[in-house]
Amino acid sequence: MTHAALPEPPRPLAAPAPPGRRSGGAALLPPRAVLRNPVLPVVAVLAALALPFGPGGGEAGGAGPADLVSGFLLLSCVLRLVRARRRPLTPTAAVVLGLPVAGFALAALAASSPATAFAGFGRYLQVFVLVPAAVLLLVRDRADFRLLAWAFVGLGLWQGAVGTHQYLTGTGASYQGAQIRAVGTFGPGDVMGMATAVALGLVCAVGLALGCSCGVRRRVVAALCAAALVVPLALSFSRGAWIATAVTCAVQLLLAGVRRALAAGAAVVAAGVVLVGGLGVGTTLLEQRFDSITQVTGAPDQSVRDRYALWTAALGIWREHPLTGVGLKNFPEYRDAHAPMALSSASDTGGAGAAFRRQPLLSPHDMYLLVLSEQGLCGLVAVAGSWLALLVCGVRGLLRERRRPPSRAGGLDCALVACGLLVWQLTDFVYGDIGGPSTVLTAVSFGLVAWWAAPRPGGPVTDGPATAGRPVKAVPR
């Protein structure tokens, strides 16, 4: 007797992938969710920095379209906090970000006029407190962080492309009688603007290439972007940006691992030998600019002599007003009384579509000395203490990320980007200070650093979109 074959039991159906995710794990958000991404205002700030300025370029102390968009960024953050009805910052984050406010307030009271005090106080709050806090609160997870890191890379590539075109066609800013200095869309009034955008984009690309866990393809793309950004950075003729970028990339390599640092260093040396020695890449002006870095004590050029004179003036101002300084934006009023005779009255700017003009030297071109002279020891301790706390917390988070097992690790790229941005800023502050439209980049950079170093409550640490509506205990990034 034959038996009929029994029907096979039904196979269990695979659990459907969560909304907004592919079955393979890659994020696939619907268009409506993309438009509701809270970091879009931050991306808009970076996009505004890609817009061309007028014929005069960005003025050294003026605001630009990105400053207006940053106001929208702050408004968007406030509205989200009101709707969420929750505590915005942890006590640690509030102390670290709010510490400089005390120094700013004391220096504002010592300003020469209420208008000057209000303008300076608002600018310092925007750059070092409000915009960083807004970025910290709007970035939800590592995916948002990486999006902003790639936005930095994109801005650097765009500004670098414009600057390289200026150098090749002789339409850049004036440099030693030739209009070849790459300044991007910022113009000759903010010659450090393009150098800052390109350098920060390069730092983000290096961090993504060294620590990205999203596949080999993205790491290769990030490495190629970093290599492409080296050219416009060199054409910016900015020695301070060169030094800060070299120091930062070396620190990132060491933090990523000694073996990787040695391999990358050997590759850089080999590429430099091939390009410069074998192919003859480079110009006489670039070689002279590089050589001048080692001549700052022996035979400095006029720009270096002016910088030394401004540093001397800042130290002289501080000695007379050691505790609270002379007040925000009051350095120009006290400069001539403390500067040596070698100081020029102004620097020459021109080219890139702007007419020749004499631009006055209104700051010591050193952020630490600017704070020391205008805000005194009280202000410097508050500001530098906040930056040091961010650096310590950021490095601790990076080391903690490296100690995690591979199955749980995934934020090393975010750690390298955050620490790299902060190291670049702190190094560049030795040779420059805030001023001009590109200053908003500094504010967004500190926001990304704060997100990694000082977590906010309710922010889960994930690689995908944050889960809404579920409070999560604040944990390190």
Radius of gyration: 25 Å
Category from helices, strands and their pairing: mainly alpha
What's the structural domain tally? 1
Most strands sheet: 2 strands, antiparallel
Strand percentage lies at under 5%
Number of helix segments? 16
Which blocks of ≥5 consecutive residues have pLDDT under 50? Answer: 1-29, 465-476
In whole angstroms, how far apart are the ends? 69 Å
User: How do the strands of the widest beta sheet line up side by side?
Assistant: 1-2
DSSP strand count: 4
Instruction: State the helical fraction.
Output: 55-70%
- Mean pLDDT comes to 80
Question: What's the overall geometry?
Answer: globular
Listing every helix as H and every strand as E from the N terminus to the C terminus, the arrangement reads HHHHHHEEHHHHHHHEEHHH
